[in-house]
Amino acid sequence: MQQQTPLSKSSRPSGGRIPVSPAATEEEREQTLRDYKVTIEYKHLKSHSPGGVYLVPSLGDLRLFYGVIFVRRGPFTNGIFKFELKLPPTYNDVNQHPKIVFSSYVYNPHVDVETGELDIKTAYPKWDPSRHYLVTVLTFLKKIFYAKTFDDAKANEEAKVLSQTNPAEYRKRVDDCVGQSQKKVFVNFEGSTAKFTEEILGHRVLRDLLKANVREPSQVSKQAVLSMIDKASKV
Fold it and tell me: In whole angstroms, how far apart are CA 175 and each of 22, 77, 172, 178?
């Protein structure tokens, strides 16, 4: 497993000072520092997140995120897998691993078939906050969908053995989980900030109208769009 390099200085805000109340206890100061590091790591993801992987913060919890991965090649091609990423309260301390649980069904040797949890601790037995970040675990998450061998996987022993002894049957089950992920893409779990909505007829008509009449989208005015709609409605 490749080790991640520390966040670059350019990724950190200038000044280096974290606003903390003078009356705060040592424990409160430490927690404020942890909170601050979480926000820096998420900011870092904007330019360093693995391709096809998206992470959105929850509305009410600094340590809860909702994500989705779009798989573009390999056995899981066209899979759209949603997940929840939860950080422990003392994340950024040693051995305080992130936790990822898929809300989509995933048949993979690195994912517990019952709980949907990604086995992060086997890949990173010791979580070192000086080398491991949110981008580290998201890179691992992406890797499991593109891996060709699963020698170190422990979460789903059946899937691991099947991939070695009966590749055709393993591929069949993978295809099934990809199909399920597509069918349930518009099923949004309560509280999730990573939501998918079906395209409505009005949006489709407007999109087609713009494609047929607009060459430079950046130069189109609101009045021009309304004029197009009015003209089309009279046809």
Answer: 57, 9, 5, 5
